[in-house]
Each structure stands twice: as C-alpha cells, then as structure tokens.
Design a protein that fits this description.
Layout (H helix, E strand, L loop, with lengths): L12 H14 L5 E4 L6 H10 L8 E5 L5 H9 L13 H4 L4 E5 L6 H13 L1 E2 L8 E2 L3 E6 L3 H6 L5 H7 L3 E3 L7 H19 L9 H9 L5 H19 L66 H19 L4 H7 L4 H10 L5
Parallel strand pairs: 1-6, 1-7, 2-3, 3-6
Antiparallel strand pairs: 4-5
Helix pairs in contact: 1-2, 5-7, 8-10, 11-12, 12-13
C-alpha cells in the first residue's frame, strides 16, 4: 500500500471544482491527463486520483520523464534484458502492476518511446529492452504536462493517438493567481509546518500588511514559489526570535535582492514587435489606459543640478500620480507602475511615505 498523501488545501471555487472532478475521475479505471503550469500541484492531483480509486491499496509510483535520457527512460519504465550475464532489470510498469503509474512531464518522452508507451497504455503490454517476449500488466497510467499537447500534436512533436488515449479525462489545475482565496490558507499551512520543523511552539501568522502583500503577488511559480517564500521568511524570523512571538511583518519575496545582485550582461529581448498585452506584467489589474510619462523638467523640479535630487523628484511625481489615479490603493498603484507590491512599498519607504 502506498503512503497516504497530504490532504489538499484550498477553499476557492476553482479549487473545489477541481476536487469534485478528481473524485469523479478517480472512480473510472481509465488513463487521465493532468495539465497545469509548473508548481501548481499536478502530482498532488495525481496521487489523489489514485487514493480515491479502487486501486488505493496498491502502489502509486511516480516517474519524472524529464530526468532521463531516452535510453535511460526506456529502461526505467520497461526494464532491460542483458545477454552478458548481468541480472535483468524490471521497470516501473512491472512494479506498478495492479496500481497506478504517474508519468510527470510526459512531453519529454521521445517519439520512439511514445510508440512503446502507447501500446502499454492501450493494451497493457510491453517488451523490456533487449527482450522479445511481451509482458502483460494491469496499470492505470496518469500523465501530467505543463505543455499545450494538442498544439504539440499539430506541430508533429507528440503522437496524437497517445494523447487521445491519455486524455480520456483531462484535469486542468488552476494557477495560484486564479485561486486568491487559497493563498493565505496555504501560506499559514506552510508557515505552521516550517515552524514545527524548526522546533517552535507556534506560528504567529502575518501582519495585515504582509497578508495583503501575499495576496497581491502574481506567483508565477505558483504554490511552489509561495511555499519557498513562506518557509524562507519563517526561518529568518525564527533566527531572530526562536519563540516566533510576533506575526511576520517584513517578507523578502526575492531572495536575489541585494546590492551585489548579479545581473546578466546579455541584452534584453526586443519586445517592440509584441502586442501591448504581452508587455504587461502577468496578472496585472492596471487599467488599459497607458501611463502618462511625466517630463523630468517641470516647474516643480528641484533647483539643483544634482542628478540624485532630480531623480528623487521624478520618482516622487510618479508615485503621486499613481496614488492619485488609484485613490491611494497601493496594490493598484504598483500595477500601474508595473512594479510588484513589494517593490512599490520599497519606493514608499525610500521617500518616507510608508504609513
């Protein structure tokens, strides 16, 4: 029997809808395809499909297809027969007999192996490398991908017959930015677990300002990124106070931030040919009206030739404009200036405007 997975955490409508679909699909002893961006929790969905299915007492085996070369993945999945006296090996299909095999990053499987995998999924039959004898197995295959596989089929990069077989049912995991109601429960969960791992008696949570900061991020790395941020900052707070007596009041979102950060010397890609919507920060709620770019020299410019003073004045006018346009809502003002909330708060502190 496989180890029971952790209980999924979420309360948003999109998450609850996904869990309902997982429950329905689990009862069907057919292949399934889990899709979603990196870090959204596709393996969690796959393991839940297994443990809600009639196979729940059997093994659940996971394989990351991206971690192997073509030949190594062939042996990993199907085993190998040797003619030089070495012991034959049995692959994951053999060990998963009666249970579930989860193939993560299925898009990395080569066309040659896709043909072999197709037969195993369709007929429950395969041959080990170097072996002519066919073996029969009873395995439910669940695959996962972060790629648009129908588009890959259209480009000739993925077999259509394999995709259609795997996609008996497709479960799309929503990105974290579409699950706003789940951000704080997940953050609290990760914080409590990290505090317990450190030996602290409790996790104090976040200040209201930091909770708002978590809610306003786009989380391009999804749940994986949120977990990393919460664990890192919980550990930093514990190093300062092992009792964790006060809520976390200052979160470092970017661990690379600092005066000695390495910067690439390579030129940025030319974005002049991209449509305007592709130039906006992901998840931005800023209005479509293009921002007004204030002139550096105005009647309110400082009467000095100091570059630093003039840049400070220019920044202050940009801040004032953004705050005025959005009625002092800092999150929307940050979006308007195409900054993260954390970056915008840093500007407010720099100009002594933090409330």
């Amino acid at each position: 029997m496989a180890t029971l997975p952790p209980q999924p955490i979420g309360q948003s409508d999109s998450f609850m809808s996904l869990m309902d679909k997982v429950s329905d699909t689990a009862a069907l002893d057919k292949p399934a395809l889990v899709t979603g961006e990196h870090g959204t929790g596709k393996e969690m969905v796959a393991s839940r499909l297994h443990f809600l299915s009639p196979r729940w007492e059997q093994v659940f085996i996971s394989v990351n297809c991206a971690a192997f070369t073509d030949q190594a993945l062939d042996e990993e999945l199907f085993g190998q027969s040797f003619l030089d006296g070495r012991d034959d090996t049995n692959g994951r299909f053999y060990h998963a007999d009666g249970g579930t095999l989860f193939l993560d990053n299925i898009e990395y499987v080569s066309p040659r192996l896709q043909e072999k995998l197709m037969r195993a999924v369709e007929y429950g039959q395969y041959e080990a490398r170097g072996e002519a004898q066919t073996q029969d197995v009873d395995v439910r295959v669940i695959a996962a991908t972060s790629m648009d596989l129908p588009a890959a089929v259209a480009r000739g990069e993925f077999r259509g017959d394999l995709l259609y077989r795997l996609a008996f049912d497709v479960l799309a995991v929503p990105p974290l930015r579409s699950r706003k109601d789940d951000i704080l429960p997940l953050a609290e969960h990760f914080g409590r677990k990290m505090a317990a791992d450190l030996g602290a008696d409790r996790f104090p949570g976040f200040t209201a300002e930091m909770a708002e900061l978590l809610l306003t991020q786009t989380w391009l790395g999804n749940v994986r990124e949120l977990k990393s941020v919460v664990e890192r900052n919980t550990a930093k707070a514990w190093l300062l106070d092992e009792t964790l007596s006060t809520p976390l009041s200052d979160l470092q979102l970017d661990p690379f931030e600092g005066p000695h950060r390495l910067r690439s010397s390579r030129p940025l890609p030319n974005t002049s040919s991209l449509p305007p919507q592709n130039l906006r920060r992901a998840g931005s709620s800023a209005p479509e009206t293009p921002p007004v770019q204030p002139e550096l020299e105005t009647e309110n410019a400082p009467e000095t030739n100091s570059l630093e003073a003039r840049v400070m004045a220019f920044e202050r006018r940009l801040i004032d404009e953004a705050m005025t346009r959005h009625k002092n809502h800092q999150g929307r003002a940050a979006d308007y200036l195409e900054l993260t909330y954390h970056q915008f708060r840093g500007l407010l502190r720099k100009h002594d405007l933090k409330k």
